[in-house]
Amino acid sequence: MNEWLIKLRSIKREWIYLTLAILVALPLFVKLPLPFFVGPQAKGLYEAVESLPPDKVVLLAMDWGPATKGESMWQAQAVIEHLLKKKKPFIITGYDILGPQLSEELADELAKKYKAKYGDDWVNVGFITGGLAFLLRMSKNFKEAFKEDSIKHKPLDSYSVSRKVRDIHDIGLIINVTGSGSYGDWIIIQTTYKVPLAVACTAVITPDLYPFLDSKQLIGMLSGLKGAAEYEMLIKGSHRSATLRMMISQSMAHILIILLIVLGNIGLYLERRMRTNA
Amino acid sequence: MLDVIIVWLAAISTLGIYSILYKENPVFRFFEHLFIGLGLGWTIFTIWKDILHPKWWTPMVEQGKWYWIFALVIGALYYFIYSPRFSWMARLVISTLMGLSAGLVFKSFAAIYIPQIEASFRAVRFTPSIATGLNNLLSTIILISVLVYFLFTISHDKQPIAGISKLGRWFIMLGLGAMFGSTVMARLSLFIDRLTFLLHDWLRIIKL
After folding, report:
1. How many domains does chain A have?
2. Which of A237, A241, B144, B185 has the fewest CB within 10 Å, making it most exposed?
3. Looking at the complex, does the CB of residue B186 fall below 8 Å from at least one CB of chain A?
4. ipTM of the shown complex
5. Within this chain, do residues A26 and A47 fall inside the same structural domain, yes or no?
6. CATH code for the domain of A193
């Protein structure tokens, strides 16, 4: 038994990958009844959207691309679906060159379900360059900074969504879906102009963001795929959504990793003891 | 038909990239270079379409704002960095941008960290909620011990500094553990998304 446990320390990595792939795939085929809870961070964002004043617009800062699609796309999809469902007008922009384009595709697809229309329910002003300097300029004069949308290249006064946005005070909520550290610039805008801000980030960034929740600089946060699943649960009820099944896959992978760490350490301990006894 | 071709190309690319899990191979190298090339090409196109054309080219050429040509001239000064004789011209642009960045960093620091410093001063009292009181107490202990760990101007050999500093190090290690756990979670999410794509969009053997 002891020798077998020691051998576990030298399992070939290909076998670990294969086991991981099988365990991750299993919940996608079979519905496993694992519990899942919605945290206060996701509720914070959900309630901010629900209580948004009717004269305000949501600014979606889509700072994500294909590299973080596995997390960010599901978050963006859940947030856009909620906004369209509740008829909350929104403007898409972002630092990432592909973020606004990928989000536009999501909005376009979901618009069919909720009978929403480009220009009346949302506008895409494209990606932005110039970093914080541009954001500060945008905050003072929105239409001067953006001039036109990036889909039809028409002035922002041509659309009912963007017509009423003069400066940052006409924005009721900023939601930053990010796969990088771009949230820092949006926090500066939040602190300077006191506009509510929520961040949907990749799980890697999550530990960095908790202090901002404590200091009330963020009103909500979606953490990785888990955050997307929580948000979907909030907007769709107990319906077992795609992200929820993916989260069960995640749990299976975590169980395997914990098991391998424990077994590896037992193996190490036994090997050391055998060496000492020899 | 086009959709089917796109899904097949994406599936082949995904499998090509994941072939690295077995070992380094030419298929992985090919798809890696393909991804970098596509990304760069798309970036150049989008910068022209969304930024340079509407905000620089159109005002300069179609709206008579000829002075926008100076943006190109000033930007081109950067390239003098390759000339030892004229590199001072590149430094003009670089120093301007450095000054701008330094100003913005001051603003960033004030806007990002001052609210956090304020929020870290917590009242350690157990009314009306014992849980909040315990949370605040724990937060204060962690804050002080980690700060003590980073006090390098006093000796960490004697008590109580040695003990508090050691406690701070343990808290930092717990924090780093949480960060590593989050990283593992993030990477697995990306894998799960790709696997879902292969099983759902490509092979069509699962329903979402």
Report:
1. 2
2. A237
3. yes
4. 0.87
5. no
6. 3.40.50
How far apart are the C-alpha atoms of A110 and A119, rounded to whole Å? Answer: 15
Touching check for B45 and chain A: CB below 8 Å? no
Q: Does A240 score more than 70 pLDDT?
A: no
Same domain, A93 and A182: yes
For residues A170 and A49, membership in a common domain is answered with yes
- B94-126, pLDDT tens digit by residue? 999 899 889 888 888 888 888 888 888 888 887
| Burial of A66 from C-beta contacts in 10 A (0-12 / 13-18 / 19+) | middle
- Report chain A residues whose CB lies below 8 A from the CB of B178: 207
Question: pTM (2 decimals)?
Answer: 0.89
Residues A68, A168 within the same domain: yes
> What sections of chain A are H helices per DSSP?
2-7, 13-29, 40-50, 69-85, 99-114, 131-140, 142-146, 160-163, 183-193, 206-214, 224-236, 242-277
Joined together, the tokens standing for residue A89 give 């007008």
Chain B CA closest to residue A66? B39
Chain B residues within an 8 Å CB radius of A188:
107-108, 111-112
User: A140 and A258: one domain?
Assistant: no
Instruction: Select from B118, B119, B189 the Cβ nearest to the Cβ of A225.
Output: B189
Residue A273 and residue A226 share a domain: no
For A84, phi and psi rounded to 5 degrees?
A: -70, -40
Which residues in chain B touch residue A212, judged by CB atoms under 8 angstroms apart? 116
Across A69-78, A80-89, A128-137, least confident range:
A128-137
Domain residue limits at A131: 40-239
